[in-house]
Amino acid sequence: MTDVRGAAHALRQSSERVSHGRSGYAMLAVLFAALVLAVAAITQIDRMPDALVVSTLLGATLLALFVGIGFYLLQPNQAVVITLFGDYRGTDRTTGLRWTWPWMSKKKLSVRANNMISERIKVNDLRGNPIEMAAQVVWRVTDTAQALFDVDDYKAFVNVQIEAAVRTIGSRYPYDDFEHQEVTLRGNHEQVGSELRAELIARLTVAGITVDECGFTHLAYAQEIAGAMLRRQQAQAVVAARTTLVEGAVGMVEMALAQLSAKNVVELDDERRAAMVSNLMVVLCGERDTQPIVNAGSLYQ
């Protein structure tokens, strides 16, 4: 990430500044006046000298063309980058009908939020397991000068950097940790998502783009190991369930023996105590219902 930030700082040469665009409504009145003058010259063609009519009509037409070429419209969250013979002159973000000199070049740019879902890519996690990942990113242009002049195609640049950032974050953590002692991609969505956003912001600064929100839309083991990992998860779940069951059964047996001894219900020697513990453990830990056997004789028969 340090190299990316250093490169971004080295390439950051452009900076957005406010242009000197004008309101187009005043110039619209000038255009209307030029059209009225042209129509008046045509209607008075029989009463005026030909030279005056031609000069008036030509002047009104040229004025109308001069004014008409300079108009442009801006909607909310749109901007126009204005250049003069390749030299950046500023960015106009004022909405409505706008006007600038006809020899100024105008490039319209959207500064609205863009929502993009990346392609699924295969990444090796921290432990080398192949996993599939895809991310959803909400981004927008914050500096129009950087977006147009510091990168060749800012939209393609965003796509490439999203894939690179997903690969970086995916290789930084394991997919899962069955002992719940590490930060994982599957178990720590908020932390990993925050790191992905920070990584993307650092990479996209050079293009004048910021990231408002991001997260993973797809996260799974690759097909070649998905079956093996599923069996491993199932085995871990079975072991965890058995561990809990045995711990509970041991506690119940201890409680039963303690209460039998405390209330003098029955006195058992070591052999009979071991047999009773074995029977209780079978009853408590067995997966099937047990069938009781009634002892009609003495305890030692």
UniProtKB/TrEMBL annotation:
Pfam families: Band_7
Primary localization class, coarse: membrane
Subcellular location: Membrane
Protein known as: Membrane protein
Residue span, Band domain: 69-237
Family annotation (SUPFAM superfamilies): Band 7/SPFH domain (SSF117892)
CDD domains the UniProt entry points to: SPFH_like_u2
Transmembrane segments: 25-45, 51-74
Gene3D superfamilies: Band 7 domain
GO cellular component: membrane
InterPro entries cross-referenced by the UniProt entry: Band_7, Band_7/SPFH_dom_sf
Membrane topology: Single-pass membrane protein
Keyword Membrane appears in the UniProt entry: yes
Protein keywords: Membrane, Transmembrane, Transmembrane helix
